[in-house]
Design a protein that fits this description.
This protein is α+β, with helices and mostly antiparallel strands. It is built from 10 helices and 8 strands.
């Protein structure tokens, strides 16, 4: 279910408080999941649909399942395009949402694209939704247009060489904190050389865009502190 089992479980008290506050009952299968891990990236990321979506001819993509504290009960777009009944959204990709549709006691699952104004039922209930999810490798495509969640899923499933190629293509990503977190993961998995090559390019070509504190804290992460490392550190300190 979870490719990165790193989040703590939701507390029963918090679940009951949320349900009382919203005057609903969350689906049993959803509560069973968040009692084990309170949301995160998903291992299976595709769902067949009965009509085309902005993702493709007959499918949609889902990258992350929200934990209890991340569930969306109201969104700005809904004021402009009101939908009947109560909705609680458990996943978001830009203007596209997946959520529980409480027009029935056991909520069905609804896909809503507020940009194209598409509203599409995709599963009878949350258990049915989970059963229908399937896995397939994402094509590289225009990586700069992908969400960070989608990119992280891709990185987790690729070889080190492929990871380095993806991150090299994303070297001008505006969110440098996110980018450096991906380099940290390379180091943590024993791929320091790949991380260093990507880090070096950041220093040499994007130094004016880099957050100083982040870079300063990154240099000590390398175990192999060679003369080349020292030269790069000096380049950074002298020219920032």
């Amino acid at each position: 279910m979870w490719p990165d089992a790193s989040k703590v479980a939701a507390k029963e008290k918090s679940i009951l408080q949320f349900e009382a506050q919203e005057n609903i009952r969350l689906p049993k299968s959803y509560k069973e999941l968040i009692r084990l891990q309170n949301g995160g990236l998903l291992r299976k990321n595709l769902l067949k649909t009965s009509e085309p979506t902005s993702y493709g001819f007959d499918f949609l993509e889902i990258y992350r399942l929200f934990g209890l504290h991340e569930l969306i009960t109201a969104i700005p777009f809904q004021d402009q395009n009101p939908l009947p009944g109560k909705k609680i959204y458990f996943s978001q990709d830009n203007n596209r949402f997946l959520g529980f549709d409480y027009q029935t006691s056991d909520p069905s699952i609804l896909y809503v694209d507020f940009e194209t104004l598409q509203v599409l039922p995709v599963a009878e209930n949350f258990k049915d939704f989970l059963d229908k999810l399937y896995d397939a490798e994402f094509a590289n495509g225009e990586l700069s247009t992908y969400s960070h969640d989608k990119l992280e899923i891709m990185l987790q499933s690729r070889s080190v060489i492929a990871q380095e190629a993806i991150l090299a293509e994303l070297e001008d990503d505006a969110d440098k904190e996110w980018y450096f977190n991906q380099l940290k993961k390379l180091i943590a998995t024993g791929n320091e050389e790949s991380a260093y090559r990507l880090f070096e390019n950041q220093i040499l070509y994007f130094k004016r865009k880099l957050p100083k504190e982040t870079v300063d804290a990154f240099f000590p992460l390398f175990h192999n502190q060679t003369e080349k490392w020292a030269s790069l550190k000096k380049e950074w300190e002298d020219n920032y």
